[in-house]
Design goal:
The protein has 7 helices and 11 strands. The strands form 3 sheets. A 4-stranded antiparallel β-sheet has the order 1-8-3-6. Strand 10 and strand 11 form a beta hairpin. The longest helix has 27 residues.
Length: 230
Amino acid sequence: MGATPYINHCSNNEETGSCFKVLTEQEKLLFENNRTEINFTKGETVIKQGTRSSDILYLKSGLVKISIQKGDSNLIICVKTKNHFLGTENIYGYEYHPYTVTALEDSTICFIDTNAIRQLIKQNNNFNIELYRIMTNNSLLVYDRFFSLTQKQLHGRFADILLCLSDRVFKSKKFDLPLSRKDLASLTGMAPESVIRIIKDFKTDKIIMTKGKRIEILNEALLQKISDVG
């Protein structure tokens, strides 16, 4: 049996809204009565690292980035697309948000009372299993990101992010980059100057084409090879 191939995930694209399907009608009513839906504009902070948590968040629509800051250093852990939970680490007693969530585009987010989620976990084992699966996937995401950031060279890291955005976030070879050069640097663990240089290298090698914020992947096979080699 062969080894499992490495796949870098800047975003876990497995939709998690399916966990709601296992709820009974009464449990769905409990959920509805304990949630608040809020709209956020692009660039707005959804939750701030270090603040006290009382809710689990569900990204109904839009795109957000999750980042951790220590002093002057900032690292973007991942981006999240619609139909994903945020803050699941708070379910089992962690009282403070360990990261900041910022809207990369206009987004709609449901804030669900943590106590209501805990009640659903106690009375519906299938819902508990689904949430545990979601948290496991989030852990695997962190492991993959850690491998990319520590074991790959700069070009490999950037290739990972482009493939992720193309295949898992936008599902298209052409997309408008939602991240600034500074964000790309934080996502790949490199200096902004290095990001600019690598983009230039990829354009010279006809791997990508850019126009403003628009990026088109011209040679996915070569980009994948750069990612694989690291």
